[in-house]
Amino acid sequence: MELPKNHFKAGLAEGKTQIGLWSALCSNIVAEIISHSGFDWILIDTEHSPNETPGLVAQMQAMALGSASVLVRPAWNDTVLIKRLLDIGVQSLLIPFVQNTDEAKAAVAATRYPPEGVRGVTGSGRGAHYGRVDGYLHKAAAEICVVVQIESGEALKNIKEIASVPGVDAVFVGPSDLSASLGHLGNAKHPDVQAALKSAIDQLNALGVPGGILAFNQEDAKRYMEWGYSFVAVGSDMSVLRIETTKLAAAFK
Questions:
Q1: 7-251, which class in CATH?
Q2: Which one, 49, 75, 222, 250, has least CB within 10 Å?
Q3: Residue pair 62/28 in contact by the 8 Å Cβ criterion
């Protein structure tokens, strides 16, 4: 049995624009529905949603026949959390709150087996199709995608150095936490924040490193894409459910 190809990682390398959706509803049924909706990628969040490992497995199984690549955000840049995600078959990781090169190197090391990294060794987990992928231990890294998240003013100052760490495949800019760090909590539209988001992608594009971002509406998403962000989350399952059900109820009341 062959190791699954990471189409999201391949798309980044090819410079493709990839449109995504955030998933925080912790439901395999929701995951199955949205995986067939036409998105290029779906991010299953464990930082700001009550997702745990068994539930992640169920959601990934439900998405297996869908067209979207699966990304998972661990709750923290933690070697043990990352190991567990890799062992259940996660190939693309969004590592939160990376502030400097040391933290970026630690994120990469957590995804590599020794001597290149510190990932705990097993060849019998779901990621290796329960031992059916020949040579998994030597092949796994090639299909693992490490995306680090820039979320503060300090990280923004270090963005060139962070993006240049070997093994970092892309950089994701988090507007909400960056806004708070810059003194504009809850106001990603503030000119200072927008300037920071533009500066971030300009620096990444100059380095040839793909940049990603979460947009809160279609207008923002289109602007970020025009600036050069190549993988953009254009909404979330939670917000779609909230907005559309509110509209439906209002239409009859």
A1: alpha beta
A2: 250
A3: yes
